[in-house]
């Protein structure tokens, strides 16, 4: 799969076990410019997580992103259909000019709440964004990866780890085209 050739940077924790996010020096408010406008997406989502599953569900979607807050943020709308029902997701991304870190928040038409953000930055057109989360009652680490090396066909992917980042399971890929 595209971008599996990329390594996930080592996850760091402070002495209290809190996740430490290492910022890239090149991180900027323009990191997501490649994603502006409308994209057609081919999604590939693992049918079941943390179950040694090898079955993938594939489905189409669209997404449209625009900048907000004088360029230090952006919003996108993700539209698809699950089991014949319309589904809408929304992402809010905010760049902190002081820390040079992005915080990415997700909500959807099923929950109506903003998830905890994944936080990170881009380096050489590849972004890694992390959070601690809970999946089916167990603590996990989550990473979102944006691979924008091909700005016309970026790839977003998500992985989770249930062993503090020693191993990762990729569970969703989004192959975008303009």
Instruction: Note the beta-strand portion.
Output: over 45%
CATH class: Mainly Beta
Q: How confident overall, as mean pLDDT?
A: 93
The outline comes out as: globular
> What is the H/E string?
EEEEEEEEEEEE
Neighbour order of strands in the largest sheet: 3-4-5-6-7-8-9-10-11-12
Overall radius of gyration: 16 Å
Number of domains: 1
Could you name the CATH homologous superfamily? Calycin beta-barrel core domain
CATH topology: Lipocalin
Structure summary, number of beta strands = 12
CATH architecture descriptor text: Beta Barrel
Helical content band: under 10%
Poorly predicted regions are none
Major sheet size, sense and barrel closure = 10 strands, antiparallel, barrel
The class by helix and strand makeup works out as mainly beta
| Distance between the first and last residues' Cα | 20 Å
Number of helices: 0
Describe this structure in words.
The chain has 178 residues and is mainly beta. It has one domain (12-177): Calycin beta-barrel core domain (Lipocalin). Helix content is 0%, strand content 56%. The strands form two sheets. A ten-stranded antiparallel beta barrel has the order 3-4-5-6-7-8-9-10-11-12. Strands 1-2 form a two-stranded antiparallel sheet. The mean pLDDT is 93.
């Amino acid at each position: 799969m595209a971008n599996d050739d990329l390594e996930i940077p080592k996850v760091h924790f402070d002495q209290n076990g809190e996740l430490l996010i290492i910022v890239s020096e090149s991180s900027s408010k323009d990191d997501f410019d490649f994603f502006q406008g409308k994209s057609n997406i081919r999604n590939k989502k693992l049918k079941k997580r943390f179950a040694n599953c090898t079955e993938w569900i594939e489905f189409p979607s669209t997404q449209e992103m625009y900048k907000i807050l004088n360029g230090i943020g952006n919003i996108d709308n993700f539209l698809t259909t699950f089991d014949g029902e319309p589904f809408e997701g929304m992402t809010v991304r905010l760049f902190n000019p002081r820390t040079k870190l992005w915080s990415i928040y997700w909500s959807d038409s099923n929950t109506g709440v903003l998830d905890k953000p994944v936080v990170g930055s881009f380096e050489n057109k590849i972004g890694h964004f992390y959070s601690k989360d809970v999946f089916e009652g167990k603590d996990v680490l989550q990473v979102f990866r944006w691979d924008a090396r091909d700005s016309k066909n970026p790839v977003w992917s998500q992985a989770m780890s249930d062993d503090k980042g020693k191993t990762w399971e990729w569970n969703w890929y989004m192959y975008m085209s303009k």
